[in-house]
Amino acid sequence: MVPKLLQTKTRSPAPGEGSIGFVLEGDLGGSWTVDLSGGSVIDGVAGASFCMNVASKDFALMMNGKLDVIGALQSGKIRMTGTANTNALRAFVNLLP
Q: Which is nearest to 37 in space by CA: 1, 88, 80, 95?
C-alpha cells in the first residue's frame, strides 16, 4: 500500500531528510520505510529513525488529504515511536495534499 500511494507523490528528494517507517494495521497492512533522501520505499522498518503506526484505511485517507493529521495524532489514530527527525517530518508533510 505505501509504495503504491507514494508513487503518485513526486518531488525531488533532498539530502539529509532521513527516513520514516510506517506500520500499517488492518487490510493491506504491512511495514515499510520511506527513504526521503533517496526517494525509495523498502519493505520493513529496520533502520528508520522513527515510525508512524496507523490503520491502513487512515493512512490512505491521510495520503489523499482527507484525514486531519493533527487531530489523528492527538486522538491516537496515528502513533509515533522513536525519535522524530524534523527534516523527515517536514519532507513527509510536503508529500501530503
A: 88
Q: Can you tell me the distance from the alpha carbon of 50 to that of 10, in angstroms, rounded to the nearest whole number?
A: 22
Q: How far is CA 62 from the centre of its chain?
A: 9
Which pTM value belongs to this model?
0.77
Q: Which of 52, 54, 56, 53 is nearest to 92 (CA)?
A: 52
Q: How confident is the model at residue 92 (pLDDT cuts 50, 70, 90)?
A: confident
Dihedral (C-alpha) 85, 6, 11, 20: value to the nearest 10 degrees? 10
CB 22 within 8 A of CB 52: yes
